[in-house]
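MODEL INPUT / OUTPUT PAIR
PAIR INDEX: 1
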Amino acid sequence: MMKKLTPSVAMSEHQALYAALSARDRKFDGRFFVGVSSTGIYCRPVCSARTPKSENCSFYPSAAAAELAGFRPA
């Protein structure tokens, strides 16, 4: 998982990662993975699936970290 941050910093990090996910920004491909609580899957930020709601997303530095958190690959 991403390291623990103060709430305001953590929120801005979440917002930045969610913005990259929403834009399917290729420069972030492989730099983080997103776990989606409503589906139980994780994927790369360039995934072609519909963008999940922000509140259903958690971000991880690697696929292994997402799997350790209980998510399965898309």
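PAIR INDEX: 2
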Amino acid sequence: MNQEYQVTVLGVNSYTITVAATAIAADVTGSPGGGAAVSAAYQIDSGPAFSVPLTGWGAGSWGSGSWGLTSATDSMRLWSQNNFGEDLIFNPRGGGIYYWDASSGLTSRGVALSSLAGASSVPTIANFIFVSDISRFVFAFGTTDYLSAAFDPMLVRWSDQESAVNWTPAVTNQAGSVRLSHGSEIISCLQSRQEVIVWTDSALYALQYLGAPDVWGSQLMGDNLSIAGPNATALASGVVFWMGIDKFYKYDGRVETLRCDLRQYIFDDFNSLQRAQVVAGTNEGFNEVWWFYCSENSTTNDRYVVYNYGEDIWYYGTIARTAWIDSGLRSHPVGATYLNNLVNHEVGVDDNSTGTLVAIESYITSAEFDIDDGHNFSFIYRMLPDVTFRGSTAASPNATMYLLPMANSGSGYNSPTSVGGSNSAVVTRIATVPIEEFTGQVYTRVRGRQMSIKMESTGLGVQWQLGSPRIDIRPDGRRG
């Protein structure tokens, strides 16, 4: 029976477990110890995998629920963790604080921090824990106060310097606490240079080490802002970036709203009930900050948006990731999938997250362009693609380049339909030209008031880079 079992609760003082094999008499009364003392260790419930909205007044559209009934959201289970030397301190949001000793080996379990020798006034509940880079203070955010069982979602407590177990404030140590005033609960924190950045649901604070007697002091850095969830923050090149509930922000000593060309596209298709699932990460090799989030009709992360702070541009796509860590000492960034796999990114040209190679469908589309501000139709009869397939593993890599004509700005493309949604307007001509390696020029006959160029590939082992394609274009009258 030395293994894990799921418990079925029968009453206050009894429960049952089901084992694979039926017990025999020797197991009950004979050697090697059947019927002797039993030792059991209980695991923490894994908790909900996503947030579940509950019914009642305030849920859904105004007036749709019964007045006077409560409404809330059953929160998903999130964990925070930090290294304390070679050991690990971790905490399920809204639960206790636990400690894992690396010297006990990989088969050992974590134990309650309060059970360790010398433990004093360890918080019984915390929403978030953190170990500072400065002198190794252990922080608890949204926690119980000293000598109190009352939970305060705006309280910050810290242990004595270089001690994970001593949380009793005294003149002989540096344990202490501070209560933040702007907001209703603390959401997240992040180490940034010489300060600890703390987000409430409406403000940004900086915690700075002052030494005795105050030890840590708080400074309000920004108000009237938002944050999507505890893991929606990232630090890149000394700048803090995060995703709010309706915009993106950055902090480099002052709070600023990030200009985002995709803002409406992202937040019009964003499941705000699942915003706690938002995961941010950096890809320093390409000057990128990534956010993975749930689209409007999804309860799992299925979309991403990327901000390239080196070029100040945004791009987006579809991918399912639950966690992310940058390369650091590794060769590549690592992401976690819903199949419990850890996968390397920025290596290879195909998707191998499930163990089977799948082609990555990639494309880029230009904005619409015209001549004479659209006063005349234009006619394109030749394209000179500027493309290379360097890095492809396919023997004969190829991509497809499209010219997408529009009769007018509201007509939509004839194939595919406009990105904005279904559009039944038909334009009579389109050119689809396969671009194979080393193709120098292709001839087309495409006419439209506005044009767009698109290039895409859907094959295995294909990688391409697009330069500056050229087109031969001339005016072609005013009538469609």
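PAIR 2 NOTE: The chain has two domains: 79-344, 362-475.
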